[in-house]
Input
Amino acid sequence: MSKKRVYTFGNGKAEGKADMRNLLGGKGANLAEMNLIGVPVPPGFTITTEVCTEYNQLGRDQVVALLKPEVEAAIANVEQLTGTKFGDAKNPLLVSVRSGARASMPGMMDTILNLGLNDEAVEGIAAKSGNAWFAWDSYRRFVQMYGDVVLGLKPETKEDIDPFEEIMEERKHAKGIELDTEFTVDDLKDLVKRFKAAVKKQTGKDFPTCAWEQLWGAVMAVFDSWTNPRANYYRRLNNIPDEWGTAVNVQAMVFGNMGETSATGVAFTRDAATGEDVFNGEYLINAQGEDVVAGTRTPQNINVVGSRIWAEFQGVSEEERKSRYPSLEETMPELYKELDAVQQKLEEHYKDMQDMEFTIQSGKLWILQTRSGKRTAAAMVKIAMDLLREGKIDEKTALLRLEPNKLDELLHPVFDSIAVRSAKVLAKGLPASPGAATGQIVFFADEAAKFPQSILVRIETSPEDLEGMNIARGILTARGGMTSHAAVVARGMGKCCVSGAGGVKVDYRARTMTIEGKVYKEGEWISLNGSTGEVYEGEVLTRKPDMSGDFGLIMDLAAKFTKMDVRTNADSPKDAQIAKEFGAKGIGLCRTEHMFFEGHRIKAIREMILASTVDGRKRALNKLLPYQREDFEGIFEAMAGYGVTIRLLDPPLHEFVPHQLATQRELAEEMGVSVDVIKAKVDSLEEFNPMLGHRGCRLGNTFPEITEMQTRAIIEAALNLKAKGIDARPEIMVPLIGTVKEFDMQAGIIRGTANKVFEERGDKIDYLLGTMIEIPRAALTADLVAAEADFFSFGTNDLTQMTFGYSRDDIGTFLPIYLDKGILKHDPFQVLDQEGVGQLVQMGTQKGRSVKPDLKVGICGEHGGEPSSVKFCHRVGMNYVSCSPYRVPIARLAAAQAAIE
Ligand code: PEP
Ligand code: MG
Output
């Protein structure tokens, strides 16, 4: 049998179902499933994601030929179910064409509505509906959408204006009207004429009148949109593979713009911002699809409760609310009830919060889409725990529902309660995405990086702004509701957002915003509270939120299933403390060099480096000893009862010496030598490739007195704490070994020094002695190394650097191009390259354990806090991962998920 490329659905029947999302995309699979469970869905069909891949390989003509028989049959099925005819003048079938990938990519792909209209069909629709205005408005929208998306008239840069918008604006201006709804039928006819002329002018071709030609054009445009820059960017941001492709959904149109008994909207089964179990959403009467999210008209709440809260935020009186902004519950109570029943059914069926699109056509409700709703981290946690408490899902499912990286949002700042009291509120919008942000105003997304902390201020955002939204600290829009592009995307990113702040007037040309007559320029500071919708003047102090309740329960649950411990990378008692509060069980990496930069330490270390004799070096090291000992005491105390891995000095020495003449002079004076002596020494430390130079254990092996001093400081600190009854558990770690000899040599010095201290003190303490595996040769010879070492810690930063041969510090010049061209899928310094570097990690672990089965193995490179890498570490059988304090909860959750998966 030949391959099936098209799956039909309609009237309670479907060829697909929910678990076919890889083939049908999320939207297509759910449209099929909704049919099967009796939710009213307009009939249609889905072209599979595999066809997108075929399209990219074979091109348009071959793919059309392959699809034709199935698509023709599927259209015939829709014709039969709707009693209409595709391409007919009197009784035309109109369809929507939408993309739908496996993972939801909101706003990434373009949609075309009302396809099938032409100069004859529009009259047919007008006659059939008895509503010429509706017919012509639909036609006007279709020509515009099709022109923008399929024929490429949509402007590419922000300076250019959409030609269709320009024509509409001209017309409105000439007539002295403001809203699209104020156009007359004649206006609409004229607009269509001018739109088509604009198409002809720009493309040299007539607007296609044949429904089939329109359909194929639209289908191919959806496939093309899979590789547009914003889709590419979204995929990279969310780790979605390029090869997945998008499906295409073709569905009979239903119209929310057929008059006052028609409407369209979006609804959520629970609150996407807080996770509360309240049905909510927004709608517009007499409107079509994109109107609700585009922010051109202010959508209204579907239920009375939501509507009242909205009115309060906006300062709208109850009377005005009822007359001007009534809820669906008030305008169409029966349909609201029906919608409420559908949402309950959908949530019960999918056992997760759903985000639905609906349309009411002349009093009949249709569901156009349902999917797992995007939500903030707070909502993600609350919904998972609520569903667990409600008995709808089990513990494992609750944990798997959580996106580890998203937990980061919960650690995001809130305003300092004192500071915010004296802050001046400039404006109020909708609390679109919670959190607090303070930063400098930028007006264009591609300029978001202009300031280290920026707030993106837009009239409204669009998918083109995605990258800038991700960079900005917060987003403020003048238009748009809770389901506007800005709001939905910001919530997905966990970014603070205030939307629909009507009091803010943005002037892109002047790069200013005006609030109550006062002008704010680019670069000025403002602050946003995404939880209340308030916009403040100036910079307002923010602070970290406290975490308790469901967050704590999630972490407890994670602990129940996890097999790996999570440690932290910390160089100070403060960081150690934070990490411990997040549940870190020990320190996996304490980089001792970071302690050298503070106060008098740097002077002593410089003296050590610049000394020309062993004695001179020892004298300087003796000055450092008390500082180091004190630092270690602090860290051991903060992590009492847990292992603390202290790494011996690692970076090349030239990082510590002064490179500026003024500082060199100062140092020369202090040391009583000439500045030339200092300069000569600094020059002699210069290396062509310091990352591969005199660093790591090479330092300790050439200057054993450094290792001696550090070991002494560690052991003495531990003994001092022991004397105070504090349980210090030192683990001494040798960096950057490539041969077992390098390790053995260091081990000899460390053991010798420790024994000496034990003798001096007449007391002992247990300690571990291990090494980092961060040079490929160390991984390849791990069996030899393990014979001598108590533990391995994979330093995947250096291991990645040396396996790829990419300099950690210079990758920035070519990485963006490599990601763009698909040579690399991710930055390998963020996401562990399991295929290559991962092999060394696996081999090193296996070889090590082949001679020492209970060898303790961990990871301390940046990858230790990245979920997919953490899961890899679990599969390799590591004992622990170690990451920066704020990533500890993320790693804990990922580790638990790995164990469950
Ligand atoms: C590593 O190389 O992975 C590591 C943790 O050490 P550093 O980043 O300090 O080189
Ligand atoms: Mg390293």
About this structure: The first strand starts at residue 6 and ends at 10. DSSP finds 35 helices and 32 strands in the chain.
